[in-house]
Amino acid sequence: MTASRRRITAIALGLLAIAGVFWLLRPARIAVDVAEVRRGALRQTVDEEGETRVRQRYTIAAPTTGRLLRIGIDEGQDVEAGATVAQIEPAPLDPRDLASARARLEAAEATKRAADAGVRRTEAALEQAKRDAARAERLFQAGTLSTDGREKAKLAEIDAAQAFEAARFAADAALHEVEAARAVLLATGTPRAPGTACADERPCVDVRAPVAGQVLRIFEESERIVAAGMPLVEIGDPASIEIVVDILSTDAVRVSPGARVSIEEWGGEGDLEARVHLVEPSAFTKVSALGVEEQRVNVIAHLASPEPRLGDRYRVEARIVLWEGEDVIQVPASALFRHGTAWAVFVVDGGRARLREIEVGHLATFDAEIVRGLAVGETVILHPSDRVSDGTRVVPAGG
């Protein structure tokens, strides 16, 4: 073998040795969790705990100071409008109390007149809402009105019907307040003897139910002295249930009446559908579990169909839909991170991580809409650690 050949062989062996050392010392592939860019439905929601509430509830209070007789009705019992739910033996009236009772009667009569006016006003509004809904239906059938406009007109009709119903209930309650105030002025005579019925020696004030409903709560069951205005019984219609969800005020500004709400974790099978009826205009301060003061807003939602198994103050999970799309390019939100002022992901390309800036649309709880920068079928890295950078050799975990 000539000297030149030996030199070439030595150089080749040296290069092979260097390549082997480089191969042995090169960084190992990093195992990473990956996901595929896909296309599908996406919803952006606000998820919070809520509770049920009887929509029309009435707290019946003592109309006068006196001795409350033992209440004979039970919680959960149905009562008719005008039924006696409690009896009070009024204390003897001195001139000052007598003047106060007369003033209370005049105030109750004024409230009754105002409630009657409210009934007439809401009845007129309901008739107008019915005409508007009928007109919207004709325009929708003719193809000149959108589905959203038709649904808003229908929602306005439902709201007007509920306002009329509430006004009628308020008028009934005002009527019973007048009757109770009049009864106070009729309560004369000497106190009853112990162990005798109230009607044996002096009349009692009958506290009546303003509307038909179910007894939700009894505040005072046993006989005792009560003051005027003390709550005695709470009644309502358990079939008229609404959902109350308190959310951050920063989320409340993005919620509109009519938005769809999915009620989950309520104890039964499947989810319940509801619609946002009202976003209350005033916020309140609430301390979170971490001790942070937050400004919260109550969002009131009405169920699309009654659920008889739900009672008053039951816990539920509510998902308020802010936006939804049916055909959206999306990736798991855990793949996103900030790169400067832009969003970015690591795309797996040829066994290496490649940094790519993207444009993100709507962010959902677990996924994000991709407006630009990724194609369906590409693979992205989830939860990228500080060991991953542009060009890092990676391998899918478990692959």
Fraction of helical residues: 25-40%
- Integer-rounded radius of gyration: 35 Å
Give the count of helical stretches: 5
Q: Mind telling me which CATH architecture of the largest domain this is?
A: Beta Barrel
The helix/strand class is: alpha+beta
Considering the chains and any ligands shown, give keywords for the structure.
6-stranded antiparallel beta barrel, 38% strand, OB fold (Dihydrolipoamide Acetyltransferase, E2P), elongated, alpha+beta, 5 helices, 3 domains, 4-stranded antiparallel β-sheet, single chain, Elongation Factor Tu (Ef-tu), domain 3, conserved putative lor/sdh protein from methanococcus maripaludis s2 fold, 399 residues
Spell out the blueprint of helices and strands.
Layout: H1 3-25, E1 30-36, E2 38-54, E3 57-61, E4 66-68, E5 78-79, E6 84-90, H2 95-142, H3 147-186, H4 198-201, E7 205-208, E8 213-218, E9 224-226, E10 231-236, E11 241-248, H5 249-252, E12 260-264, E13 272-279, E14 284-287, E15 293-303, E16 315-332, E17 337-339, E18 342-349, E19 352-363, E20 367-372, E21 379-382, E22 394-396
Helix pairs in contact: 2-3
